[in-house]
From TrEMBL:
It comes from Tetrapyrgos nigripes. This is DUF1793-domain-containing protein. Residues 342-691 form the Glutaminase A central domain. PANTHER family: GLUTAMINASE A, GLUTAMINASE A-RELATED. Residues 1-20 form the signal peptide. SUPFAM superfamilies: Six-hairpin glycosidases (SSF48208).
Length: 693
């Protein structure tokens, strides 16, 4: 390891790990909120932590923080232990299992709890299947439970779990209905009695159904009914009566729950084969997408392979062992790759992956004869937490590294909907649109041009991502199809990016500003990217012209953007005391454009080490808050390992500090690690930036 300078060494000490204090062992650290079932914007179940909560120390919640009833009990020789959720069950006695350890990887959250003489291993697996469109679009996650005796004796064990109807709405006063089917698979289905397609309440979807299912093996039983009734039934008897409550009622009216139980029989000192539960939420159509011929309904891709949700669920459960093995391979690959940076970095990346991919849904359209057109794949991303827009360009952009790392084709499918809409001529502005729709899951465009304008930001982002995809894959089809649009955005950047007008950047919460140095970087990189695109497409004259414009702009930009001290770039031209994270230089490095001179990289590397706060480097001089994604991107442009690691350690410290109980927030305060409001956003895919350089 290289020697740190005096100031860096003391900062490194300040940034050394502070873990949330918990009484169980944790690996790699205790995060703000633990992903349990995180696969889509509507299948997003977490265990909030703050300073730490056991699996049975808090209710699981939706990403917003509202409770998702999900309970678990295990009976051991007739004594009942609660292992999941915090249910109260009047009239019966049970104990709390004691959590011994918690581990997370990129795909799994694994808890070990002791229930008397039994250790229970509860594994929440949210598959990450970037190379399989059917599996990646499957809106289900697994919970598996296995037991092992710890005292040398055999014990009789039964396992129970239920979900409530809170999984189908953001309003618990609404009426739900439900049914249970009992073939090879026990499947509970619960729905809102009155549904509104493409609508949300408090960010929960208001149509489709939630499912809770398990294989109908010997000893499997089920029940639906009031929470206290059904849970007491299991606690007393260790078995459910296979009965259904058909008194359909409001979600919160005697809380109907949908329960499943397994008899593990006699359990010895060898861990049992796990019993597996599948939880998910299915809706169809999933997305409404604007075309010149009106709004098109799009379905999750898995529908092209399965006729019914029941078929999908049975296949999903049957695939558990293979899915777990694929997950372990993926987890190991991420660990190996990220450990090349540091172990701190590995934990940050592992915590980011399910969250980032879980904001996306892969969709397919139908042919006129009703069959699926599997050649027409579009990916949709919800801008979770900040405003719920669909396919926000400057949210896809920070997340972009996760697509480059896992499967760049998913990135292409994200861009394709944006390209197609703007190529249709329905969008009136000369710069790139901000998003495809104000409210997920509607991608109905902005034909009035009234979307949140980020002209330089989004135009640069589209050019950078389009070239990045082509460079990574050698697939130039989008560049060919959408050359005119790409050129149009470049023309705009040539006009407006050297002297950027008063406007917002992606960091819109910081307000508008004229002459933003970092925005100019984005625009210049965008122009140079189009020079490369023109070269790929064989237009050498255009390529040379744009290349010389970019080079000329860099020289002039240096005159505008340097602080008079010569020690750092400014936040905005002429304000020498100002500075900010120049994270847009990451794109220069990613695309290997070398449009900015090495001296700027060296200067920024030296500078950030002098302005670090206890929890990292502020976003800019307007505030002391920062963005974790942009910190890692900035880490990517540092010319020394020590400077890079200041950013990595800062994000690790924030993620492991116990100051938040919300799913990994990307916006936080550098002085004390206080969260700033964003949570569960896909932009944490940007934490993979160091894996794609
Ligand atoms: C529940 O309500 C939905 C929507 O009204 C309806 O389509 C479905 O058939 C109902 N299911 C049951 C089991 O009553
Ligand atoms: C899209 O789906 C909705 C809800 O099922 C339906 O009402 C509408 O007619 C469909 N639109 C088209 C164009 O198929
Ligand atoms: C932006 O910077 C240019 C170049 O320094 C300067 O001419 C212009 O006045 C600045 N605009 C604003 C609004 O500060
Ligand atoms: C270079 O591109 C700019 C901006 O599109 C254009 O105004 C100029 O005429 C071009 N120059 C040449 C030599 O093609």
């Amino acid at each position: 390891m290289r020697l740190l300078s005096g100031i860096s060494a003391s900062l490194a000490l300040l940034l050394s790990t502070v873990y949330a204090q918990v009484s169980w062992t944790v690996s790699p650290f205790n995060p703000p909120s633990i992903p349990l079932a995180v696969r889509t914007p509507y299948l997003s179940a977490w265990l909030p932590q703050g300073p730490g909560a056991a699996l049975n120390g808090a209710w699981p919640t939706f990403w917003t923080g509202s409770i998702l009833g999900w309970a678990g009990f295990v009976n051991v020789d007739g004594t009942s232990y609660n292992f999941l959720g915090t249910p109260g069950v009047p009239g019966v006695t049970f104990q709390k299992a004691v959590q011994k350890s918690f581990t997370f990887t990129s795909t799994q959250s694994i808890f070990v709890l002791s229930a008397g003489p039994i250790d229970l291993t509860v594994t929440f697996l949210s598959p990450v299947e970037p190379n399989d469109l059917v599996k990646q679009s499957t809106p289900f996650a697994y919970m598996s439970v296995s037991a092992m005796s710890t005292d040398g004796a055999a014990h009789t064990v039964q396992v129970y779990s239920d979900i409530s109807a809170e999984w189908v709405s953001g309003d618990n006063s609404l009426k739900a209905n439900w049914s249970t089917t009992t073939g090879n698979t026990l499947i509970h289905q619960v729905s809102l009695a009155s549904q509104t397609v493409f609508s949300e309440v408090n960010d929960h979807t208001q149509y489709g159904s939630a499912y809770y299912a398990t294989s109908n093996v010997v000893g499997a039983t089920f029940q639906t009914g009031a929470d206290v009734t059904v849970r007491a039934q299991f606690i007393r008897n260790g078995v459910l009566p296979n009965t259904q409550d058909t008194n359909f009622r409001a979600i919160s009216d005697n809380w109907p729950v949908f329960a499943l139980a397994h008899n593990l029989g006699s359990v010895s000192g060898t861990a049992t084969t796990p019993v597996v539960f599948a939880v998910g939420h299915v809706r169809d159509p999933a997305i409404q997408y604007i075309t010149r011929n009106g709004n098109q309904n799009r379905s999750l891709y898995f529908w092209s392979q399965f006729r019914t949700a029941a078929d999908l669920i049975t296949s999903f459960l049957g695939d558990f062992n293979a899915a777990l093995s694929r997950a372990k391979t993926f987890d190991t690959k991420v660990q190996t790759d990220a450990n090349r940076i540091s172990t701190d970095y590995t934990g940050v990346v592992e915590l980011s992956i399910r969250q980032s991919l879980g904001a996306n849904e892969i969709t397919v359209s139908k042919n006129s004869d009703g069959t699926f057109n599997t050649n027409d794949v579009l990916l949709f991303m919800k801008e979770i937490s900040s405003d719920g827009n669909t396919n926000t360009v400057d949210v896809i952009f920070p997340a972009w590294p996760i697509f480059l790392y896992t499967n760049p084709q998913l990135g292409k499918f994200l861009l394709e909907g944006l390209f197609r809409y703007q190529a249709s001529g329905l969008y009136p502005n000369k710069w790139s649109v901000h998003d495809l729709g104000a409210h997920y899951p509607q991608a109905i465009g902005h034909n009035d041009g009234g979307d949140e304008a980020m002209p330089v930001e989004e135009s640069g982002n589209m050019l950078i991502m389009a070239l990045s995809y082509a460079q990574k894959t050698g697939d130039n089809s989008q560049l060919t199809t959408y050359t005119a649009l790409l050129d149009q955005w470049t023309q705009f950047l040539i006009t407006d990016s050297l002297i950027p007008a008063n406007q917002i950047s992606t960091d819109d919460f910081a307000g508008p500003l004229a002459n933003q140095t970092n925005l100019a970087i984005k625009g210049i990189v965008g122009i140079k990217a189009m020079s490369q695109i023109a070269s790929i497409l064989g237009d050498t004259a255009k390529s040379a012209n744009y290349s010389s414009i970019a080079a000329n702009y860099v020289t002039r930009w240096q005159g505008f953007a340097q602080s008079t001290t010569g020690r750092h770039l400014t936040l905005s031209y002429g304000n020498s005391a100002s500075w900010g994270l120049s994270y847009n230089m990451f794109a220069d490095k990613l695309l290997k454009l070398n449009v900015f001179p090495q001296s700027i990289y060296d200067q920024q590397t030296a500078w950030y080490q002098t302005v670090t706060q206890p929890f990292g480097v502020p976003l800019d001089t307007r505030h002391t808050y920062t963005k974790s994604d942009w910190e890692i991107w900035t880490g990517g442009i540092m010319t020394t390992t020590a400077a890079r690691d200041i950013f990595v350690s800062a994000v690790h410290k924030w993620a492991s500090s116990g100051t938040s109980s919300a799913p990994f927030g990307d916006w936080y305060e550098t002085t004390n690690g206080a969260p700033q409001g964003f949570r569960a956003r896909p932009v944490v895919g940007g934490h993979l930036a160091l894996l794609v350089l």
